[in-house]
């Protein structure tokens, strides 16, 4: 059973139970995979003739291949049906992009798919993100399968979400799964649109969707090796140099072989080698994470990387951490700046209370990074206007400002007035 969801004036989802219907087959069957220019041109023409929003999804091969490129793009539009496009065989979807330039594109968790869609020339001008809509409406679980079940009373099979979508040819049951992912996405959008409007949150959602589209592509980190899982165990700079050299070697091998780095060598192996500092292949093979078949293929490369790190002069060793452009981790604030720690605690309490009132996660009401930056370096004069201006500089949306600027300013000003800072 599932619930027929409605929304009361406070944005709370309510309703009565109803049977869940399994969604087993696409309405028009499984479409053929588009893998050449002629077939793609037919799809573009059909989609252009269609009407209404365009449901879009993309499947990647995260954990299998290097990077996050799309290996299948699915779309559906009224009057055009569903299309499955192989973006490896058809790497330029700019024609499709032009065909739907005036349409709203419906995605679930858009920030995950937009980068790989951009790589193949597809960039929405108008967006409806069903996951983000669910968050704003207070749904506790916002995965696509759960949302479809709760809102539409339909059950999607989600068993292939973590599959290796670089596989060719793609199995029929995978293609069925992919087609079903966009089968009712527009229907889900329509229901959520109505719920947002009823809850008085539609304009909030529109601002959020526009902000997602404005978000620039991620800039590569200057020291990506510092994100190695378990690096906190590495306590000296010589060992950090080993992490850096092994990470760099692994990245080169992974890129050249189009493999996810973790399939070449797990992070646990990099950290273990940094702690043990092996000097011979035999010592390297005695480290458990290096016993995997893929790791054993490159024993000479791993040992060379460790040797290079051991031979580096002190002046070329990495520092324990690199300074960022933002405040330090919040757990250090009580020692570094007790007044800032009090401001942060007060601001977090305000945001949590407002998020509860409007029934949404705190991070959707106001970005945690904005709260930290505001309270670490607040305006010299705490007023509603100065707080709003500071938050606006940090990318906070107008609807968020309308809810948070005044109570945040009052809370921070109250700390100053009471002399608690």
Task: Offer a concise description of the structure.
By secondary structure, the protein is α/β, with parallel strands linked by helices. The chain contains 20 helices and twelve strands. Keywords: Hydrolase.
For this structure, the CATH topology of the largest domain is Nucleotidyltransferase, domain 5
Number of strands: 12
CATH superfamily membership of the largest domain: Ribonuclease H-like superfamily/Ribonuclease H
Per CATH, which architecture of the largest domain?
2-Layer Sandwich
What is the top-level CATH class of the largest domain?
Alpha Beta
Structural class: alpha/beta
Which stretches of 5+ consecutive residues score pLDDT under 50?
A: 3-15
Number of helical stretches of at least 4 residues:
20
Radius of gyration: 25 Å
- The CA-CA distance between the termini, in Å, is 54 Å
Instruction: Provide mean pLDDT, rounded.
Output: 93
Keywords: Hydrolase
Pfam family, one: HRDC
Protein name: Ribonuclease D
Domain HRDC: 236-316
Structure description:
This is Ribonuclease D. Keywords: Hydrolase. Its EC number is 3.1.13.5. The protein is an alpha/beta fold. The protein has 3 domains: 2-214, Ribonuclease H-like superfamily/Ribonuclease H (Nucleotidyltransferase, domain 5); 243-316, Orthogonal Bundle (DNA polymerase, domain 1); 330-417, HRDC domain (DNA polymerase, domain 1, Orthogonal Bundle), CATH 1.10.150.80. Helix content is 50%, strand content 11%. It contains 20 helices and 12 strands. It has helices spanning 37-49, 94-99, 110-119, 130-136, 144-152, 172-183, 185-198, 202-214, 237-257, 261-264, 267-276, 281-285, 293-297, 299-311, 333-336, 338-357, 362-365, 368-376, 384-393, 398-417, and strands spanning 2-3, 6-7, 13-14, 17-18, 21-22, 33-34, 51-60, 70-78, 81-85, 104-107, 126-129, 154-155. A 6-stranded mixed beta sheet has the order 6-9-8-7-10-11, with helices on both faces. It has a two-stranded antiparallel ribbon with strand order 1-4.
């Amino acid at each position: 059973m599932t619930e027929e969801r409605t929304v009361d004036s406070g944005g709370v989802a309510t309703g009565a139970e109803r049977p869940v219907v399994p969604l087993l087959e696409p309405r028009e069957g499984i479409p053929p995979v588009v893998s050449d220019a002629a077939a793609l041109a037919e799809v573009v023409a059909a989609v252009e003739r269609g009407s209404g929003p365009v449901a879009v999804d993309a499947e990647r091969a995260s954990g299998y291949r290097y990077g996050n490129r799309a290996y299948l793009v699915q779309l559906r539009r009224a009057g055009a049906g569903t299309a499955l496009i192989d973006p490896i065989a058809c790497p330029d979807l700019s024609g499709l992009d032009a065909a739907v330039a005036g349409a709203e594109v419906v995605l679930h968790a858009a920030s995950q798919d937009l980068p790989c869609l951009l790589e193949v020339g597809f960039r929405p001008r108008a967006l409806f993100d069903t996951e983000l809509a669910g968050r704003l409406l207070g749904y506790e679980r916002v995965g696509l399968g759960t949302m479809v079940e709760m809102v539409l009373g339909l059950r999607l099979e989600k068993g292939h979400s973590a599959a290796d979508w670089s596989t060719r040819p793609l199995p029929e049951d995978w293609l069925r799964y992919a087609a079903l992912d966009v089968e009712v996405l527009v229907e889900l959008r329509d229901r959520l649109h109505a719920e947002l409007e009823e809850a008085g949150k539609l304009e909030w959602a529109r601002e959020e969707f526009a902000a997602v589209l404005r978000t620039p592509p991620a800039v590569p980190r200057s020291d990506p090796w510092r994100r190695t899982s378990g690096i906190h165990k590495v306590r000296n700079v010589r060992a950090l140099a080993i992490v850096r050299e092994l990470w760099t070697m692994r990245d080169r091998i992974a890129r050249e072989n189009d493999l996810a780095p973790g399939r070449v060598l797990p992070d646990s192996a990099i950290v273990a080698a940094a702690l043990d500092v092996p000097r011979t292949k035999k010592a390297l093979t005695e480290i458990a994470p290096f016993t995997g078949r893929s790791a054993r293929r490159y024993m000479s490369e791993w040992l060379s990387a460790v040797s290079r790190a051991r031979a580096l002069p002190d002046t070329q060793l990495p520092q324990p951490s690199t300074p960022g452009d933002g405040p330090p981790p919040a757990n250090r604030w009580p020692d570094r700046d007790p007044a800032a720690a009090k401001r942060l605690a007060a601001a977090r309490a305000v945001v949590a209370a407002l998020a509860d009132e409007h029934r949404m996660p705190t991070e959707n009401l106001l970005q945690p990074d904005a709260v930290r930056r505001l309270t670490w370096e607040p305006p010299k004069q705490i007023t509603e206007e100065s707080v709003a201006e500071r938050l606006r500089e940090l990318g906070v949306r107008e609807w968020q400002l309308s809810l948070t600027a005044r109570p945040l300013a009052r809370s921070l000003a109250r700390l100053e007035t009471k002399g608690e800072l």
